[in-house]
Specification:
The protein is of the alpha+beta class. It contains ten helices and eleven strands.
Length: 233
């Protein structure tokens, strides 16, 4: 059986920021970090805090959110195990563009800016590889902001549902499993749980999908894809 430390190392090797590095580079980056536990509801950092570290999530779920002047929360991304986050801030303005809040108990890997810069100075190719990962994340964030600000809730939900499918193709009759509670699904779609419920009922009445225990069954995949077809990669 794989030890806990070995399992965590394998998880970190798969995160986008590290995945494409050489084996030696991966070892150096992972060893340069440290580990931290968060309890449910704990705030890892606030929007506009000085960006001192980047992170990898090993266990649990964590949300990246922005708040309106009236305190309304906009969920930008729900971080899951095996994902890195906040790396763009280290190469950018020097502050975090959003707040990070633990949705449940989390174990995270933390790489401080100073240690990262030491690694890059000793191995410039490492910095180039990391910047490529940051570029991908930036494009994804831009697409997410467009989704939340310029698209109807039906389109946002369609993108969310299709994004939950692990395989490239989906067919009529396939079940999309939803392990997250409705309020988290609604937050990722930029809406309220009651609005999400109305949209689901409307899509059921239109014969596009059917809600079932633990997920939704696709009835008309072409129409579901049509709602989400604007999204690019």
């Amino acid at each position: 059986m794989m030890s806990s430390a070995a399992s965590e190392s394998e998880t970190l090797r798969r995160i986008p920021l590290i995945r494409h590095l050489s084996s030696d580079q991966q070892v150096d980056v992972i060893r340069a970090g440290r580990f931290r536990q968060l309890v449910k509801g704990e705030i890892l950092f606030h929007e506009d805090d000085r960006a001192e570290s980047m992170f990898g999530l090993l266990e649990g779920r964590l949300k990246l959110v922005k708040y309106s002047p009236r305190g309304k929360e906009m969920l930008l991304h729900l971080v899951r195990s095996g994902e890195s986050f906040a790396e763009a801030a280290l190469f950018g303005t020097g502050t975090y563009p959003a707040s990070a809040v633990a949705v449940e108990s989390c174990r995270i890997w933390v790489l401080d800016r100073q240690r990262l810069m030491e690694l890059i100075r000793s191995d410039p190719e490492l910095g180039l590889a990391m910047l490529a990962s940051v570029s991908v994340w930036t494009r994804k964030l831009a697409a997410k902001l467009e989704l939340l600000t310029q698209r109807r809730v039906e389109e946002r939900l369609a993108v969310y549902l299709l994004g939950r499918i692990a395989v490239a193709e989906v067919s009529d009759g396939d079940l999309i499993q939803l392990a997250e509670p409705k309020h988290l699904i609604a937050a990722q779609c930029g809406t309220a749980p009651e609005v999400l419920s109305r949209i689901l009922r409307r899509l059921e009445e239109d014969g596009i999908l059917n809600s079932e225990q633990g997920g939704v069954r696709v009835l008309d995949v072409d129409r579901l894809r049509a709602l989400a077809e604007w999204i690019d990669g």
